[in-house]
Structures are given as structure tokens and as C-alpha cells.
Amino acid sequence: MRGEQSMVPEADVQPFESYYGKQIIKTPTWKTPDVPLYLFLGGLAGSSALLAEGAALSGNTTLERFTRLVAAGGAGAGTVCLVHDLGRPERFLNMLRVLKITSPLSVGSFILAPFSALSSAAAASQVTGRLPVLGRLAGVGTALFGPPLVTYTAALISNTAVPAWHTARRELPFVFAGSGAAAAGGLAMLALPVRAGTPAHRMALAGAALEVGAVATMEHRLGMVAEPYQQGGSGRLMRIARGCTVAAAALTVVGRRSRLLRAVAGASYVAGSVVTRFGIFEAGLASARDPKYTVVPQRERLRARQEARAEPA
Amino acid sequence: MSVRDSLARSLHGRLDDVQGDAGYGDPAEHPPRMGFFTDTSVCIGCKACEVACKEWNEVPDDGYALSGMSYDNTQALGASTWRHVAFVEKPLHPTTTDLGLPGMGPPGWDTHESGLPRAAPAGADQATESGGANDDAGVRWLMSSDVCKHCTHAGCLDVCPTGSLFRTEFGTVVVQPDICNGCGYCVSACPYGVIDLRKEDGRAFKCTLCYDRLKEGQTPACAQACPTESIQFGEVDELRERADQRLAELHEKGVDVARLYGRDPEDGVGGDGAFFLLLDEPEVYGLPPDPVVPTRDIADMWKHVGAAALTLVGLGVASFVSSAGRRR
């Protein structure tokens, strides 16, 4: 950051003052691709756990086996991403020293840790056929921790001073829920025959609708803070993500019986979900770098407060 | 710290006994809350505070780059910059057409966007102008030594997942380097952009308000070194009174632009343990005009996270209900 921006940027449409155009809050130090990839993998794993439990209950062994592996693999890979992102990775267990509800990362560690353990146990039992009862119980546990694993990551990034994330705190959980469902459903569609993958295709379609709807609501409500979701590199990612997701949904509806079209649609869902996470991540960084997104909404808030105080008098 | 402790904590708003809230017992059982009042109207930009801080705390260098933007080559607070002197050089008269008078007389009354008069600070303490009367490069200099605010409701402390950041018995907020694992959550959660990770080290660092010196009854290094008493150290309650007096004094002298920043215990962070007297809008110094601790909204966030998780469950169930239940 140092020395990067020594020029005062050109005057913007919204007048605001700053210290030589420098940003006020720090740019998040979370690394790319570690953190956006974790956001995706958590969504994929958590939603796959739900699919697995549904498959187990409905006797769809093909789907169950695949989604159990995805849940365990996603949680494992996600954990690797999180640990790799730490400045002192060898101290990752310090995450479990305390439990603080004011820290979504702390709460999340206590979701991710049991989810990882249970999903691995369930997958191992599924593959080896050993201890089926315990495996089944582990599967139920995995399904319980799955949905929170998908959506807590929204609170993780919202509980920051980063304008594009903090302001979007109400919609992001729904974006992540939809995006996670689309990814889990999409991956199963990609890998499995049409029949076994039918619940997956329904889940992906519903997830896509939720994701696209929640993103639209979010962009509408955020006002000027929505700009990073619409402009620049992060805006481009968001458009690509929406394109992938909408195309996948269309293909799902059109190519209902074709194995090939199913697979293409599945891949497109997964791509949409991945790119959504990167887009949201990058939009946050962009909103941190530009003092406009810190100053203008806060000025607006102050002005509204002053007006409210002045009115009764 | 247990979950119950963290539930019992107040998350935002006024809080008169920060230490008590953090588990230090009644006010009689812990020292008073200590802090800084930085009166920027007497800051001369000598940077003695920056140097003293580095020396005492053995903070590594933060680069030798020349910023090219002003005398401020330090540029911002960071992991290795715990005091930062800002140099604001603002053109006195953005459109230099009708000037014939030296700017030091009665406040110049060209108006600011905010509606506040842009007074040339007229206090005797304040030599803020350079450049001749006909020189359109006339600038006003504002200098301010920035520091960690040691918030009443500290975002960094709230989000730290390891318990490395803690509230001291003096009401200050300090990182324990032996516990920090460099997750960086505090960096994103600080509404002021104070704390940061030290890249080569991996951990987070910031001002400790010289915790070690406080324990020995000493003054923090920066305040000790300040030659103009711009940085004043003391009990927060007393500093607040002192700041109010100083503000009244300046207003009496006609320095209408003077305002206190971070002093109000009702603000978005419950008031700062280190607060300021400024001569312009906060953002001119690189400070957020209305900072709010992100955790103020934590209940709202968890509620939506829960609702979204339930939505996902519903979506999962619907996917397995026979084709009659297919959505859309």
C-alpha cells in the first residue's frame, strides 16, 4: 500500500474530502485465492452434506456416495485454504482457544472443525462399508453443521468495516446459501447420471434462483456502495458469475434428458458459484481501497442524523 | 473467556466502565481508564512522537520511501507505524481570483461544502499559512499525530478469534504477539484502518498505549516526547474535561473550525480512549467521519445467517420431494 497512491485522484461526481486520496480503512489482508476459494468450498461442502442426507433418506446410494465425498473433500480443502491464509499457519489451533460470538471466524471454527471430522467419518464409512451405523450418525451430524457452514461465511466478511461487505450483511447470507446449493447440485449433475442426479438438479436450479435474486436485491439496496459489485474488475466478475449461473439454469430446463447438457449445465453452475465468491471478495477489497465508500455513506448518515435532530425543534 | 462472558458484554453505545465490562470488577478494583487527548491545534509536525514510539517499542522500520505528496513520508498508521503525523496542505482559496488580503486576518469566510466557514485558523498557536497574498499557492497546514483510538467498543478485539487481542486493566486494547496467528480479521474490522499485519512477521501489531510503561506508572513514549503538549496522556475522564475547556477556549478566540473527534461516548464506537481536537473535517486528516464498530450489527448478521441456513434446508428438502414439489 505504501507509496502506491501518491497522487490525489481526480475529483469525483460525489464531492468528498480525503487525505491525499488515500484510503481510510485498511485493505483486508486475506489472500486470494485462499479466502474466496474457502468461501466457495465451504458452500460446496455444506450444501453437499444436505444432498447426501437427503440421498441417504431416499435410498439414492449413487448420489449419497458422491456427495459425502464432496462434503469431506471440500471441508478438507477449505481448511487447508484457511490455514494457508494465516500469517502464522503453525498456530492454527489457537482458533479453538476461545469461543466468541462476536467473532464469526471463531464461531466458524467451531462449525468447520466438527463438520470436517464428521464428514470425513461419514465418507470413510460410506467408502469402506465399515461401521455403517456410526457412519450414518456422522452423516446426520454433517447435515446439521452443513447449512451454518454455508452461510456463516457471510457474517465472516460482513462483520468488518469494509463498506461493500458490511452494508450487504442482510443479503450476503442468502447469496451464499443460493450459491452453495448451486455449486453442490451442479457438481453432482456434472458427475452423475441423469436419474441419480435429479434431486441435485432441482437443488442447483433453486439455488441459482436464490443467488441471482439475492444479488439483485443487494445491489438495489446498497446504493452507491453497490458500485464495486457493478464496476471495474469485481463488477466484471459478478457479471460473469451471473452469466454462468443463468446459462446453467436455462440449460437445466432445456436439456432435461441429455446427459451431456446436464454435465455442461452442472459445470456452469459450479463456475458461477466460484466466480461469485471471487467477485464478492474483490468488490470488498475495491470498496476498502477507495475512501469514497467510507466517507460518503458516513457523511450521509451524519447529515441525516443532524436533520432528524433539527426537525422537532 | 466463555461464551457467556461474550454474551454479557455490551456491544455498542455508551459504556462508562470499560474495564468492568471486560471482567475487571468494580471501578474500585481496577485503575482508571487511561488515554490520549491529541490537541492538533498545537502540533508542530516534529514527529518526535513517531520516533519516540519506535525507539521505546522497538518497532521495525516502515520503509524509507518518499511519498512526494507532502512532508508526510510515513503516510498511514500500520503494523510498524503506531504514531503517524499527518500533514495536510490545503489550498487556502481553491479559486484564486479575488484575493488581495493576507489570509491571517479575521477568518476568511469562503464557505465550505459542509456549510461551515472555512476560517483561516486564527489562534495564536496556529501558524497555518504560507505563501504570499498574491501567490495562488497559498496553503493552510494542518498537522495531526494519529494513533490507535483504543475504542470503547473495539472492532479488532471483538473479532479476534484467538483471544490475542485483549482489554487491559487500563481500558486499552493490546495484542499479545505470543498468541496471534495472523488471521487478519482485526485488520478488516477496524473502522479507522489502524491495525495491520506485519508482512515479514505474519502477525498483527498496533499501538499498546505503552502498556509496559503504564504498568510502571510512566507516561507513554509519544506523550513524553511531545514538545508542545499536543499529545496529552491521562485519565480519560479528566482528558475529556480538558478537551472541552480547550474547545471552548478556541471557539472564544474565533477558531470556529475547531471540533472534538472521538470524545463523544455516544458515538458509533462508544467514544475513543484516544481522541482529538481537529481544525477541519475528520476525513481531511484521513479519519472516518462517523465510524461504527462492525459488531454493533452482529445480532442482525447472525439472524440473517440463521434465516439463510434454514432457507437452504428448505431448499434441500424440496429437492427430494417428488417432482410435484419441483420448484420453478
Structure report:
The complex is a heterodimer of chains A (313) and B (328). Chain A has one domain: Formate dehydrogenase/DMSO reductase domain (Formate dehydrogenase/DMSO reductase fold, Up-down Bundle), CATH 1.20.1630. Chain A is globular and about 70 Å long. By secondary structure, chain A is mainly α. Chain A has 11 helices and no strands. Chain A has helices at residues 34-58, 61-85, 104-128, 132-158, 163-166, 172-191, 198-222, 227-230, 232-254, 259-289, 291-310. By secondary structure, chain B is an alpha+beta fold. Chain B has 2 domains: 3-292, Alpha-Beta Plaits; 295-328. Chain B has 9 helices and 11 strands. In chain B, the strands form 4 sheets. Chain B has a 4-stranded mixed sheet. In chain B, strands 2-4-3 form a 3-stranded antiparallel sheet. A two-stranded antiparallel ribbon of chain B has the order 5-6. The longest helix of chain B is centred in the last third of the chain and has 23 residues, at 298-320. At the A-B interface, helix 1, helix 3, helix 4, helix 6 and helix 7 of A face helix 1, helix 4, helix 5, strand 7 and helix 9 of B.
